Amino acid sequence: MGLFESLDFSSNELTDTIPWQLTSLTFLETLNLSVNNFSGAIPQERKFNTFSNDSFLGNLALCGFPMTKKCRNDEKKTREVDDVDNEDWFKWKIIVMGYGAGLVCGLSRGYIVFTTRKPWRCVKFLEGAQQKLIK
């Protein structure tokens, strides 16, 4: 994602903050987010600080450059908090996926062992693996 030259999301009744992922569109020459309900600070990364005030008109709760309304400190920190939340969510997602996969494998193995009524194979395998680890 980086080959867009023009992006027009005007008059779509979009809400919340401007997604910071839009800053990764490095080839973007024109952006129109006017007449929506965006709030918070306008991202300042990459090309975002080159867009004119017209790109953001009609979003009364937006603040920061190029708008004349200055941001309070808590509005500027919104992006930083969102980044941390996204990173934490990604880490937990990996942990839960690993736990789920282990649980499925363990339950499947237990089901197979006890339905075939040959748990000695499992015991023999585990004893062999334990002996290899000890050596």
TrEMBL record:
Family: Belongs to the RLP family.
Listed PANTHER family: OS01G0160600 PROTEIN, RECEPTOR-LIKE PROTEIN 12 ISOFORM X1
Residues passing through the membrane, by range: 94-114
Chief localization: membrane
GO CC annotations, alphabetized: plasma membrane
This protein's name: Receptor like protein 30-like
Compartment(s): Cell membrane
SUPFAM superfamilies attached to this UniProt entry: L domain-like
Membrane topology annotation: Single-pass type I membrane protein
The keyword Glycoprotein is annotated on this UniProt entry: yes
Record bears the keyword Cell membrane: yes
Pfam families: LRR_1
Keyword entries, A-Z: Cell membrane, Glycoprotein, Leucine-rich repeat, Membrane, Receptor, Repeat, Transmembrane, Transmembrane helix
